Amino acid sequence: MSQDTLRRKAKGWLCLKISSLALASMVLTACQLTQYLPFSELAPVTPEQLPRDTGIQKYTLSRPAPYQQPEQQTLSPQQQADLWERVRLQLDIEIPDQASIEAHRQWYLNNPSYIPRVTQRAAPLMYFIVEEIEKRGLPLELAFVPIVESAFDTFAYSHGRASGLWQFIPSTALHYGLDINWWYDGRRDVVAATHTALDYFARLNDTFDGDWLLAIAAYNGGQGRVANAIRRNESRGLPTDFWSLSLPRETRNYVPKILALSSLLAERHQQDIAWRFTPNQPVLEIVDVGQQMDLALAASMAGMEVNELHRFNSGYNRWATAPDGPFHLLMPQAAAESFQRAMAESDRTQWVEWERHRVRGGESLISIARTYNTTPGAIQRANNISGSLIRSGDYLLIPVASEAAEVYQLASDQRRQQRQNEPEGDRRINHEVQAGDSLWEISRQHGVGVNELARWNNMAPGDTLRLGQQLAIWIDDDTDSVSSQSAPTPQAITRTVEYRVRQGDSLARIASRFRVTVADIERWNSITRERYLQPGELLKLHVDITQGG
Known about the structure:
- The chain is mainly alpha-helical.
- It has 4 domains: 3-54; 79-266, Lysozyme (Orthogonal Bundle), CATH 1.10.530.10; 285-407, LysM domain (Membrane-bound Lytic Murein Transglycosylase D, Chain A), CATH 3.10.350; 427-544, LysM domain (Membrane-bound Lytic Murein Transglycosylase D, Chain A, Roll), CATH 3.10.350.
- The chain is 38% helix and 9% strand.
- The chain has a two-stranded antiparallel ribbon. Strands 3-4 form a two-stranded antiparallel sheet. Strands 5-6 form a two-stranded antiparallel ribbon.
């Protein structure tokens, strides 16, 4: 065979092989019509078989790398399915080896039903709180504060007159911009109080140079008290960290409680204690109504029960949103969609009902407001009155509740005077467990049976109570052990609190402060008004927390 013939055959063979390879790469192996040789069976092409004038020095085929499964990407905290896992992955405060932390850890471990109960109560609110913490770049440990402060009870009330999820006392609330008035208490407004609490935490952290333990201690015990303790230690050449400071017992336990919860969540996969699964997605929506609205009407438009809506909006003391605002309503997303559609189709002038009142001789704005369970200011705004002068024979429009008083069970006397002879029936009060309480003692105090009390609260008669636990008690008004003068009305929510007598206190002053009678305090504590009160003495009081101020 001549050299030219050999060259043409070699060139044609190579082109055929290359073309075959290109075609093979385009054909699905699962439906091949032609059998192609695998890479391992292709005959090698030697340099001697290639023409010298083509410029091709070498041609080789390489075996493709074996397929590798791509690595699964790690989910970010915000992508977790469980909201508590989102919190767990961002815990940042170091847990020191302290006996007080371990003591509180053991309490939670020995009472395994507590965390599941409180996390179930927290579930609707937690996403909003976690989002707000992250927006400010604060530690996620602050999500445990409402557990320690209030057990996520929006109506929680303490002996120091602290109220709401974040337990603001009136002076701190007012100082940081939360309104407290007849219509509205911002301490119990989940949205407003959360914003204020987190802003306050950020300021405290700056004040104490980034030391979060000191900031958390100051939130509980007061900024001035922590700062004074630091100065005392500095003057004595002592350390100024939280663990070295001389602080009140409540504050010394407050920080370890939060750190104990943090450590238990961090170890949730090694502990038997259950943090209830909470979907990592928004549950509630804030709807700005823009004006005063009757809560019963809002609930009807949202397809909710009035009590259900009011629990999400516990800042409203009465039967409606406040005349001067805020006007926002917090509700589940599905309900919010129905509510907004109904709101758009409704007449805004009908969002509050009105009654036409003819002024009689001797009446004043104050007396008329009292008659209709409203305020003089609300009447003034409704009638464009700048002063307090009204004349007999004038007509006034009075904003009134659209439903009977018992419909607004979480409000505080929110409608015009109840009709005469209206039956009252049984009612519920809430009791907050204090030191030394037992089911037997509480049952005797309220005139109910131990077994009934346990059953109402999904407990056994022998179960141990914990401080701050909320107990539901159903009382017949005919046998109520609390006097009829100050017994909570069907709209009231009562908390049993302990008040420590201060220098200069009197029974009359304490009764006025907590809106009870001197006779009540005497009976609740088995004392008489002839006996002098001693500073430091503890008095037990039954307080209606829905009363504003």
